[in-house]
Amino acid sequence: MKYLELALDTAKSLGADYADIRIQKSQTEHIYLRNMSLKDTSLNQLHGYGIRIFKKGAWGFAHSNIFSEDAVVKTVKRAYAIAEQSARIKHGSGLQLATERSYIDSYKTPYCIDPFKVPLSQKVELMMEVNRTMLNYADIKMALFTLESRKDEKLFGSTLGTRLNLETVYIEPMFMATAVTAEDSQSRTYSAGGQAVGWEYIQNLNLIEKAEKIAEEAIMKVKADSLGPEKRRTLILDPFHMALTMHESVGHPTELDRVLGWEADYAGISFATPEKLGKFHYGSKIVNFVADNLLERGLATAGYDDDGVPNQKWYIVKDGILNEYGTTRATAPFIDQKMSRGCNRATNYYDFPINRIPNLYLEPGKEELSPQQLIADTKDGIYIEGRGSFSIDQHRINFQFGGDMFWEIKNGKKIRPLKKVLYKSNNPEFWNSVDAICDKRFFQTFGVTNCGKGQPSQRGRMTHGGATARFRNIRVGGSQ
Amino acid sequence: MKDKMKKIADFVRQNCSADDFTLRIFHNHDLYSRFAQNGITQHIDGKNLQINLEVAFDNKTGTALVNQNDEASLERLIKTAEEMAKLNKPDPEFMPSEPEHKLPKLTPPATATRNLTVEKMVDGIEKCVKNAEKKSAKISGLSHKQINQYYMETKNGFNGYDELGSFSHSMTMKKGGRETKVERSCKDFAQFSMEENLQQLNQQFDSLQEPKQIKYEKMPVIMRPQAFLKWIFYLIWTYQRREADEGMNPYTDKIGKKFFGEKFSLRSVIDNPALHTPRFDQYGLPTKHIDWIEKGVIKNMQADRYYAKQKNIEPASIYNVVIDGGNTSEEEMMQKVGRGIILNSLWYIRPVDMKAGEWTGLTRDGVLYFEDGKVKKAVTNFRWNEILHDATKRILALGPAQQIEYMAQIPTVLIDDFNFVDVTTF
User: Fold this and answer.
1) Closest-CA residue in chain B for A59?
2) What domains appear along chain A, each with residue ranges and CATH number?
3) Once rounded to an integer, what is the mean pLDDT over residues A129-140?
4) Chain A interface, mutation test: which of B24, B41, B139, most A Cβ atoms within 10 Å?
5) What is the model's pLDDT at position A480?
6) What is the pTM of this model?
7) Nearest CA to B201 among B127, B113, B120?
8) Is residue A478 pLDDT above 90, yes or no?
């Protein structure tokens, strides 16, 4: 804590208009098993601090891994000098920061068993059993399992007087079986992404049963037919698949920095511009997208963001209409929003915080409806499970998605597995084609841990969710 | 820093009790100036140290990483890696660390790159902003200087040190629906000319008007180097010998055979001083010239040490990219096919079918339609789904290879019947 106070005092004495410091220790354990061979068993620890100085409407940021009074003061001075250089080329009269008050608080991801206290041998044994289960099927030629656990301990202080002590944890198991025949090779994956939980989550997953299903479906998939030529069809998408579609087609377009053109050179901009707020029909009337950084198990649930703004819950799309954005203290004033929604996050101590997608989910349907009932109610369509190929333009309008497992539906029944299915759609066609969403009993979340954004690129994380939903009249066909 | 790295290595060597170890120490100093909409939005200065220790007891391995170099941190590093290895299961594919190797000569970072300051980088950005303002346009981009040092040592006697300095600059200029980009990187900042890059940006920008939408169909494309390189990066990712032999990529049973087009050759070279050539790979193996694809024939594929030993081949990885060029100009390419599309860049490339080698993506940063051998208009972007090795069989002509990055030298290519499958609204 003494370095935190020293940094802020130094920044104030230099004449910073605002400053904050993030002292962050990040531990990541990564285990990667391929066909019973351990390709990586590593425990990484990064410890350092990043200092942001705001001066004359511009930012300077410097970081260091050296903990000494001298190094802290030097780092503050470097950040200050950089802010002065940034101010040479600023936006108009300079950036403004949305109003915020000070907080003295702490937050810790709720969990029972610390994943870092579980012996490595226990984790590897479980992973090997899963791998063995998949490799027991003769057609499965490759079995992969990756297990990542991460813990971030952060001390945050700002010249507003905020002092925060934050600890977040997540675990991400992912395994994949690849079936190979003389003609083809197809994979099937189990993944619910990362979840902000302890090891107890893994204990309750019943991974062996899941491994059998994944292996069997990989074999089914490699022997399945392709779909054939593209035509307009009905799609039913499971929550793990929809996590990706909403991430790309709703999450990114509603990050305010993209809307403002701050990502124009790299990740791109957004079609969802401010004049569309309150008017644009993003989806059908039953489509509600909730930003919820208070979501249980959510990867963006951290108490506060890296602006020192508390986590919140709000509607991005309400009754089908574009309602609001995800914002930061520096972006919110551009649309006359007085307070930030708290979406400024950095991945490591040496990263500059950027406008990130919050936890974002499709609100479940209000009427009782199960996935089985939805399939029974569909005459002719395609049911897609899990994540596959994905690609979207830099304005976030036109996209093409694949999936992990595909089933043809005829007269209310899943009649056969398929492979190599792709669909093409765009905003606003896609979310406006939703005519049914299953109810809250079937709500599931998927935690994204590899959202690439920013220069230098950062691997951001957030959670998406939903219940199985139906989309009408979408272009669906087989690949080449 | 090199002395500090050696001191860290001394400590690890003296205190690590494992049967085998590989120590890798990375030190980076980066300056990033990011700008958008004619103003600087983000500005970073920082040094990073990462000390990675991989140990083995018999064939049980463990790896740890820290970013502090005090004795307590190094002791923790060794203890963590050793404990992980002891608790781990045996790895049937374990390979011992490399012995001493004779390495190519060290090329230190260029003086101009090393001496590049924040002030000078901001001067460059100021030129970009003034240029955009003259055109009533908005410019966004990134300037990045990096100085990297890398030290590696193994229990079996390998000891190597390497350095890399580079400068990269990218910029996107946009006004209404007109949007284009130039990106370049080089080892020596003295070789970088902001004026030349702005001239190219202006040429591209001026050639674009408000784009019109045209029907998507299979058409010839003139793919400029930046576009082609983005796709080639994905080829590198999947160009693996083991996956080929196991039936999981398109190259199964194709090694030594003509599988790409006659006009397509790809290699990694050690004799081009402008290209980054690491002295050794991640295991300590010295870098060598490798022909990957020669006139369409698969000569070599990437393989790790374990798999290479099984197959009695040399372990190899792609460390820089040189694609042979030709001498056809863009004008000659347009005349050759009459009608088609010119692409500045590709975007959001992802696999559609790994076994088939099929990829999807979009066009970006300015698309031109030509007819009767002449540019007619700017058009909106397209989606494409294509099989890369098949597309190389449809290469009709190549321009001269250009160095657009410190990792790559690549030509403009003319590809026939490129498979556009959708069109965007902008």
Assistant:
1) B42
2) 2-223 (3.30.2290.10), 226-478 (no CATH)
3) 98
4) B41
5) 72
6) 0.96
7) B127
8) no
Query: Which of B4, B29, B45 to mutate to test binding with chain A, by most A CBs within 10 Å of its CB?
Result: B45
The answer to whether residue A1 scores a pLDDT higher than 80 is no
**8 Å CB contact between A227 and A221:** no
What DSSP designation does A247 have?
A: I
Could you tell me the two tokens for B332? 């000659």
pLDDT tens-digit profile of A197-209? 999 999 999 999 9
- Give the closest residue to B114 by CA, choosing from B143, B142, B146: B146
Instruction: Tell me the C-alpha to C-alpha distance, in Å, between residue B158 and each of A424, B15, B19, B155.
Output: 52, 18, 15, 7
Cα–Cα distances (Å) from A39 to A28, B58, B90, B148, B300, in that order, read 16, 15, 11, 26, 23
**Residue A430 token pair:** 């896609």
Q: How far is B177 from chain A (nearest CA, A)?
A: 11
Band the pLDDT of A479: cuts 50, 70, 90: confident
CB-nearest to A90 from B40, B80, B170 is B40
The closest alpha carbon to A437, from A331, A384, A363, A375, belongs to A363
The domains found in chain B, sorted by start residue, are: 2-201 (3.30.2290.10), 209-426 (no CATH)
Range B311-345 burial, b when 16+ CB lie within 10 A, else e: eeeebbbbbbbbbbbeebebeebbebbeebbbbbb
- Radius of gyration, alpha carbons of chain B: 24
Tokens, residue A231: 């035509």
pLDDT digits (tens, 9 = 90+) for B225-258: 999 999 999 999 999 999 999 999 999 999 999 9
**Residue B310: what pLDDT?**
97
